[in-house]
Amino acid sequence: MPLLTSLTLTPLLAASVLSTPATLPACQNGQACTMAVYSERTQQWQFINQSRAQQAYSPFSTYKVPNTLILLDTQTIKPGQGYQIDLDTYPVKKWWFDAWRKESITPQDAFRYSALPLYQTWTNLLSKPVMQKYLDDFNYGNRDISGPHDKFWLNSSIKISAVEQVTFLRRLQTQALKLKPSTFQAFDTIFLQEETAKTKLYAKTGTGPVAKGKYIGWYVGIVENSQGRHYFAFNMDAKNFKEVVSTRVEIAKATLNQMGVL
């Protein structure tokens, strides 16, 4: 069973995704989930289960947001270029998705389909001091990368809360991070997942096991609409991988809709 995945839909389906009402209920107070939202225009926070929003968890694939920024800024990867997984280090597994099996994968597809072995291949090209310098500047979670070099974000040393995810995304969007202008521009294209005439949704999922019989699912990002820009971070508990992957995005969107954001 895979540790994590991110099978977001292609831009061609974006209009129907954003306009179709969710069929799953929103996260509610008292449930094993949280949503933290900061709206730029009103400068106000909204929470579902605020205490959980301040609790730190492994970021799993949501770590691909800072990781992609680092990879772009160090020119380890370039937008639009095709890359191969180091199959000697990460041999093909039965559970790999078709998008991971391609001979050439662009950074945009690697991000969209959460190509873990390719991100591990890329991460191995970076030194820990370099990653630490960036994550310290990002003030990303507890900034602890003492775990295994190619998987410290997979239920290992680095942890982050929903509130910290939102704070990081705010610094990213306002270009407060010490990154090249070209990095912001390239990542903006990679981060954008869905778009209509009135709404843009930048987002990243993340999922993985945190204990026996317990998985956590993340959905973090930015909504831009007529009300301005809204930063959000959602996470929830589930009993298994299949359950969380099939529900996390829809529950998060239902919650954003309930909060008047989406």
Task: Present the secondary structure layout.
Layout: H1 14-19, E1 33-39, E2 44-48, H2 50-53, H3 64-73, H4 107-112, H5 116-123, H6 128-138, H7 162-173, H8 181-191, E3 192-195, E4 200-211, E5 214-225, E6 228-238, H9 241-258
Antiparallel strand pairs: 1-2, 1-6, 3-4, 4-5, 5-6
Describe this protein with a few key phrases:
single chain; 262 residues; Beta-lactamase; 6 strands; 33% helix; 19% strand; globular; Penicillin-binding protein transpeptidase domain-containing protein; signal
Strand portion? 15-25%
Please count the beta strands (DSSP E, at least 2 residues each): 6
Q: Low-confidence segments, ≥5 residues, pLDDT <50?
A: 1-17
Assembly level: single chain
Fold and architecture overview:
It comes from Pseudoalteromonas rubra. Pfam families: Transpeptidase. Residues 30-254 form the Penicillin-binding protein transpeptidase domain. Residues 1-22 form the signal peptide. This is Penicillin-binding protein transpeptidase domain-containing protein. It is a single chain. This protein is of the alpha+beta class and 262 residues long. The protein has one domain (11-258): Beta-lactamase, CATH 3.40.710. It contains nine helices and six strands. A six-stranded antiparallel β-sheet has the order 2-1-6-5-4-3, with helices on both faces. Helix 3 (64-73) runs antiparallel to helix 8. The chain is globular. It starts with 13 loop residues before the first helix and ends with a helix.
